[in-house]
């Protein structure tokens, strides 16, 4: 196994009037928790070491290392924690500046790959504003899809009170203008765009998405692409890392978003419940925090007071790309429509395969001796071939259930 140990000096010049904020004095979390929580702290940091290492370790040796050294992360001890820190996957490998989001106009693929992919968030202009989907707004959806149903997250009071309801676009268009801090609504629909070919055709291309191994997945378990996000003022997401630890993308078509992005290495401050599952057709672990970073309960979550984060506003026509390992939460200050998607490529495929292997309990003994010679694409296909038939059948069943639950026979 070789260590790429990629280091980059990134131009940190702010090229916009976006509001940027950095909380705290360092990207390294302070050990301010009680020593009795040491095992929990080790668990969180060790998971982050595993995740970050895949961006820097070449070949399939990372997957084998995952099996041999860290498949039972809940049993990490002081001894093997020290071994992890001193091994090739070391948090120091994550040496990039993380005090702001870099902003680029029409970044080239070479620049994106070298400086940002699997490393740093980047806001890219000059791409989304050319997409036909920029015409999407409330009147557009109301006139073309008014009788179509969508799942809506509705909140009265705190986010803990969120409920998922089914509304027609017509019904949603009546409530979405009235968002308030204590009452808001948010369409977060994984399937709506994919079920309407005309909407799918309105989404333009971006060179950063060209290599995407998710296209190799069987349809029954392929992560749903092009999620429709349409929220009232004051709506927001949960604080989370994306499923499978993929590279996330978000394109704003109407309105604007305010993001908080949290550099890796702070997991112990997010109060994650372990072993949550995502419930997707192909199962994966879920990394959601109960904390609302836009309305923080300091008494309930005291460790969160010392987290470091970057804050940036994203306007219509701009594309934000978030690498693996970054917790993030988004807030919509005004009614906003956006599309989110995901990337699996040569830089992050090891991370995603690790998640698939762990969540679906695949056996490492099935790996051939010459797997190091496989290309990234061949390795992805190999892991997919290990999935038993019941996993594919489960994926089909889950998709059918969701369609029936939220859309009925429409």
TrEMBL record:
GO terms for molecular function: 2-oxoglutarate-dependent dioxygenase activity. The chain crosses the membrane at residues 49-67. Residues 1-37 are annotated as: Disordered. PANTHER family: ARGININE DEMETHYLASE AND LYSYL-HYDROXYLASE JMJD, JMJC DOMAIN-CONTAINING PROTEIN 8. This is JmjC domain-containing protein. The keyword Cell division does not apply. SMART domains: JmjC. Gene3D superfamilies: Cupin. The keyword Transmembrane helix applies. Residues 185-360 form the JmjC domain. InterPro entries: Cupin_8, JmjC_dom, JMJD6_ArgDemeth/LysHydrox. Keywords: Membrane, Transmembrane, Transmembrane helix.
């Amino acid at each position: 196994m070789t260590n790429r140990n990629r280091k980059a000096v990134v131009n940190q010049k702010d090229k916009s009037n976006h509001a940027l904020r950095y909380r705290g004095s360092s990207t390294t979390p302070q050990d301010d928790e009680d020593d009795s929580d040491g095992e929990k702290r080790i668990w969180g940091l060790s998971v982050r070491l595993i995740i970050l290492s895949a961006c820097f370790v070449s070949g399939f040796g990372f997957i084998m290392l995952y099996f041999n050294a860290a498949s039972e992360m809940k049993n990490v001890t002081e001894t093997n924690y020290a071994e992890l820190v001193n091994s090739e996957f070391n948090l120091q490998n994550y040496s990039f500046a993380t005090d702001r989001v870099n902003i680029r106009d029409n970044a080239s693929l070479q620049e994106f790959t070298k400086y940002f992919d699997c490393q740093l968030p980047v806001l890219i202009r000059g791409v989304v504003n050319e997409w036909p989907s920029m015409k999407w707004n409330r009147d557009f959806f109301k006139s073309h899809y008014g009788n179509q149903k969508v799942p809506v997250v509705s909140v009265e009071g705190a986010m803990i009170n969120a409920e998922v309801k089914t509304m027609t676009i017509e019904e949603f268009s009546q409530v979405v203008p009235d968002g308030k801090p204590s009452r808001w609504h948010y369409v977060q629909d994984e399937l709506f765009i994919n079920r309407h070919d005309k909407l799918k055709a309105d989404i333009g291309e971006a060179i950063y998405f060209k290599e995407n191994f998710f296209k190799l997945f069987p349809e029954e378990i392929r992560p749903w692409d092009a999620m429709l996000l349409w929220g009232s003022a004051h709506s927001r997401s949960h604080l989370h890392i994306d499923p499978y630890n993929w590279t996330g993308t978000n394109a704003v078509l109407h309105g604007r978003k305010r993001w908080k992005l949290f550099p890796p290495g702070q997991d112990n401050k997010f109060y994650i419940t372990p072993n949550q599952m995502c419930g997707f057709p192909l199962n994966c672990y879920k990394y959601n925090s109960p904390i609302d970073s836009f309305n923080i309960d300091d008494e309930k979550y005291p460790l969160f007071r010392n987290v470091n984060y970057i804050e940036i506003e994203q306007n219509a026509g701009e594309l934000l790309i978030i690498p693996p390992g970054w917790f993030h939460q988004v807030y919509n200050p005004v009614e906003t429509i956006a599309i989110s998607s995901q990337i699996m490529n040569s830089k992050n495929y090891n991370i995603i395969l690790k998640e698939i292997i762990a969540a679906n309990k695949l056996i490492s003994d099935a790996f051939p001796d010459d797997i190091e010679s496989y290309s990234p694409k061949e390795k992805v296909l190999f892991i997919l071939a290990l999935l038993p038939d019941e996993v594919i059948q489960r994926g089909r069943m889950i998709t059918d259930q969701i369609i029936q639950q939220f859309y009925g026979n429409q």
